[in-house]
From TrEMBL:
Name of the protein in its database record: Putative penicillin-binding protein
CDD domains: PASTA_pknB (cd06577)
Biased composition (Low complexity): 772-787
A GO MF label: peptidoglycan glycosyltransferase activity
Listed InterPro entries: Beta-lactam/transpept-like, Glyco_trans_51, Glycosyltr_51/Transpeptidase, Lysozyme-like_dom_sf, PASTA_dom, PBP_transglycosylase, PCN-bd_Tpept
Catalysed reaction, written as an equation: [GlcNAc-(1->4)-Mur2Ac(oyl-L-Ala-gamma-D-Glu-L-Lys-D-Ala-D-Ala)](n)-di-trans,octa-cis-undecaprenyl diphosphate + beta-D-GlcNAc-(1->4)-Mur2Ac(oyl-L-Ala-gamma-D-Glu-L-Lys-D-Ala-D-Ala)-di-trans,octa-cis-undecaprenyl diphosphate = [GlcNAc-(1->4)-Mur2Ac(oyl-L-Ala-gamma-D-Glu-L-Lys-D-Ala-D-Ala)](n+1)-di-trans,octa-cis-undecaprenyl diphosphate + di-trans,octa-cis-undecaprenyl diphosphate + H(+); Preferential cleavage: (Ac)2-L-Lys-D-Ala-|-D-Ala. Also transpeptidation of peptidyl-alanyl moieties that are N-acyl substituents of D-alanine
Region of interest: Disordered: 749-787
Residue span, PASTA domain: 679-747
Originating species: Kineosphaera limosa NBRC 100340
Swiss-Prot/TrEMBL keywords: Carboxypeptidase, Cell shape, Cell wall biogenesis/degradation, Glycosyltransferase, Hydrolase, Multifunctional enzyme, Peptidoglycan synthesis, Protease, Transferase
Length: 787
């Protein structure tokens, strides 16, 4: 009868079968609820025919950089696939057992109804719903439940009495209307993606993976027959619990496929002889089961902040868990595993000292997160065992992180930047007063931003006092010198620099809100990712970017969703960023001289050690990577005698940055313009080592540089007295035109070497800021306390 099946025929047939309710009681067609046939037809015609459905919930996937699935997020384990991704044998099996005349009827099968009626009267109760009707019913129930409409859900499942008959009538009219709107293939595709197949699997793709570990496109005949047979009673034919029932039902499907001509008798018998061999798989449902639970937790929380996924948190959550999103991230699975192993080699999981470590690495100029790792195993519960926790030490508290850790002397980077903005230079003289010298809020300029009171800082073992260059103070992390520097540039200005470079507390507050010591000596808490991102601002030539874990989001239909691209903003003058960077390269000849540069690359950074060595840090960057490594005692904080920023954190930072830089070209620091390119006004520094002061000055000025001569001479075993032994910028470096180069003159060749008549050449130990290597202890031997 095809699509010409009349509404009257549908009504009569359905009324007949609808009378066969659960108890088997027959309700006559004419006289149904007191209606005449004409009135009944009118009732059928008055039912709405417009069929609407809520989109099917399907799992979202968090993907690694190479497309590997890191985790799946879902309310229902469902992966919607097009019909051409479902094996034809699976389609045949489902049609054979549920509706063998699917391609012949127009939504309601009169012949099937008559057959079911006859067989039911003979005592063999049969159903007569077509695949289209089943799709309509399941969709109505699904939509009602998702819209939390309990009344509609109950009506869509009514089985007895007048409500049951009305449901059947409504399904019939919807089915006829649906067949006029959609093709048979579209209806079958919707059905196969919607039906529940047991064991938490919704849709045939999820079922194929759940039971056999294969895609729906790769199902064999026995596998397809088993899954198809579960559509009616998934619980009763669950192969995990009832393998015999599952096999019997599968064989029923195979026989039906033979009877309808879909397979031969030989294929049927061969398939029946095949035992059910399950290869169960579970999707990485939610973060605890993912390949990196910490990163997964972070991504979920980050997505909940993205307005592009919905105006409200409820809308975003719905889209994340039901929208079938493909969430492409910056995460490199193998690289992060390598970073984690690097941390654990120095500080194993659950080490006896109770020391934790965490590392965060970002890409300057984009904010893309390269690595996040810590030396713990993910705990799904409230584990008290050290080495197991669900807290992500690398990120802020709102992303599943801790309340953060005091950052110590890594805060001094912001003071260096502020000094450059105020016109100071690497050679600016800074006086370091004696330990215990008290500084008032007024003296430090703190009253301008609400600070009151005073504090008296002290140094540790180095005990350095007196005049020194800013470069030397930074290299050696001299606390009292940086308090004096704050009095020169203003502690409120330093705090403002922290804010614009992206530093904030791990709990979301403004860094430095607890007091002046927090600004100058890093007494407030922050996360490694925040510190790494702030340092990346210098590497990017003054461009600040928020950390970004996700690069692209699309749904099943390919629709894209806008997410944060880092909100990058030029917050520092490129020349300021470059000059601050040059000063921070001095760490390798200061507190970090035993750390070493990562893979010999150009690098800058700063050690950090808080009071009593409770928290230690190394933060720094190369032109292409910025990172921060924390080492400390997380809960509760405890002193770590003899541990400083260069003891564990420094070497770990070196190894982590080397690992995350593998394959990148070697680059030098340079002035980066706002468009990300090198400034055109950059020139190469000439080699003037061994020249006289006048000759070196003339050569540098001719090249386009300004010249400054340091007031004190340096030890140089092969350079005659008064000649240039070292320069603040190394020969061959590319530096901005007009940059100041400081000359360091030699104290002279020792008499013993003069007697040996050795050829003069430069062997002076130097740092790239121009400060000769001081004899003071470094951070591995002396702390740089917060207070």
């Amino acid at each position: 009868m095809g699509n010409a099946f009349s509404l009257l025929g549908a009504f009569v047939a359905l009324s007949m079968v609808a009378g066969l309710l659960g108890a088997g009681i027959f309700v006559p067609v004419v006289g149904l609820a007191g209606l005449t046939a004409k009135e009944a037809i009118g009732t059928f015609d008055s039912l709405p025919a417009e069929f609407t459905a809520s989109p099917m919930a399907q799992q979202s996937e968090i993907l690694a950089k190479d497309g590997t699935v890191l985790a799946t997020l879902y309310e229902e384990n469902r992966t919607v696939v097009p019909l051409d991704k479902i094996a034809p044998i699976m389609q045949d099996a489902q049609i054979a057992i549920e509706d063998d005349r699917f391609y012949e009827h127009g939504g309601v099968d009169a012949r099937g109804i008559a057959r079911a009626l006859f067989q039911t009267l003979q005592g063999d109760k049969q159903g007569a719903s077509t695949i289209t009707q089943q799709y309509v019913k399941q969709t109505r129930v699904y939509t009602a439940l998702k819209e939390e409409d309990d009344q509609a859900a109950e009506a869509a499942q009514a089985r007895g009495g007048i409500p049951g008959i009305v449901r059947k009538l409504q399904e019939a009219k919807y089915s006829i209307a649906l067949e006029e709107k959609l093709s048979k293939k579209q209806i079958l595709e919707g059905y196969l993606n919607l039906i529940y197949y047991g064991a938490g699997a919704y849709g045939v793709e999820a079922a194929a993976m759940r039971y056999f570990g294969v895609s729906a496109a790769d199902l064999s005949l026995p596998q397809a027959a088993m899954i198809a047979g579960m559509a009616q009673r998934p619980g009763a034919t669950d192969p995990f619990q009832y393998p015999d029932r599952a096999k019997a039902r599968r064989d029923d499907v195979l026989q039906r496929m033979r009877d309808t001509g879909k397979i031969s008798t030989q294929r049927m018998r061969q398939a029946m002889r095949t035992s059910i061999e399950l290869n169960p798989t579970r999707g990485q449902a939610s973060c605890p089961a993912s390949k990196d639970p910490y990163f997964c937790d972070f991504v979920k929380a980050w997505l909940m902040e993205q307005p592009g996924l919905g105006d409200t948190p409820a809308e975003r959550e719905k889209r994340i868990y039901r929208g079938g999103l493909k969430i492409e991230t910056t995460y490199d699975l193998a690289l992060n595993e390598q970073v984690k192993k690097t941390l654990e080699q120095r500080l194993p999981v659950g080490n006896r000292a109770g020391r934790g470590t965490a590392a965060a690495v970002v890409e300057p100029g984009t904010g893309h997160i390269v690595a996040l790792a810590q030396n713990t195993d993910y705990a799904t519960g409230q584990s008290k065992e050290f080495g197991k926790t669900s807290v992500n030490w690398t990120v802020d508290q709102r992303y599943g992180g801790s309340a953060g850790f005091q950052i110590g002397s890594t805060a001094k980077m912001f003071a260096v930047v502020t000094a450059m903005e105020k016109g100071l230079s690497a050679g600016t003289n800074v006086y370091a007063p004696a330990d215990g010298t008290r500084f008032s809020a007024g003296r430090l300029g703190g009253t301008e931003c609400g600070y009151t009171g005073s504090f008296a800082p002290s140094n540790a073992e180095s005990r350095e006092q007196g005049n020194m260059t800013l470069a030397h103070a930074a290299a050696m992390s001299v606390n009292t010198a940086f308090v004096q520097l704050a009095s020169m540039v203003g502690v409120c200005n330093e705090r403002a620099t922290m804010k614009k470079m992206g530093l904030h507390t791990a709990t979301g507050g403004e860094y430095g809100e607890s007091g002046m010591a927090a600004v100058i000596l890093g007494a407030d808490n922050a996360s490694p990712l925040t510190v790494a991102s702030a340092y990346a601002t210098l590497a990017a030539g003054g461009k600040r970017c928020d950390p970004v874990p996700v690069t692209k989001i699309t749904d099943f239909n390919g629709q894209g969703f806008k997410v944060s691209d880092g909100n990058c903003e030029q917050v520092l003058d490129p020349n300021v960023a470059y000059r601050a960077t040059r000063i921070l390269t001095g760490v390798w000849e200061g507190t970090g001289r035993n750390v070493g540069r990562p893979d010999g690359r150009a690098a800058a950074g700063k050690t950090g050690t808080t009071d009593r060595s409770m928290q230690t840090w190394f933060a720094g960057f190369t032109p292409q990577r910025a990172g921060a490594v924390w080492v400390g005692t997380p809960d509760p904080p405890r002193p770590m005698p003899g541990v400083y920023g260069a003891t564990y954190a420094g070497p770990l930072w070196r190894d982590v940055i080397a690992a995350t830089s593998k394959g990148l070209p070697r680059e030098q620091f340079r002035v980066i313009s706002a468009d990300g390119n090198s400034s055109s006004d950059q020139i190469e520094v000439p080699n003037v080592i061994g020249r006289s002061e006048n000759s070196a000055t003339r050569r540098l000025q001719e090249a386009g540089f300004k010249v400054n001569v340091a007031s004190r001479k340096v030890r140089a075993n092969t350079i005659p007295w008064g000649r240039v032994a070292d320069t603040s910028l190394e020969a061959g470096e590319i530096a901005p035109k007009g940059e100041t180069v400081t000359l360091y003159l030699s104290r002279g060749i020792p008499a013993a070497q003069q007697a040996n008549n050795r050829t003069p050449r430069s062997t002076a130990t130097r740092n790239s800021t121009g400060t000769p290597s001081p004899s003071s202890p470094d951070d591995s031997a002396s702390p740089s306390p917060t207070n």
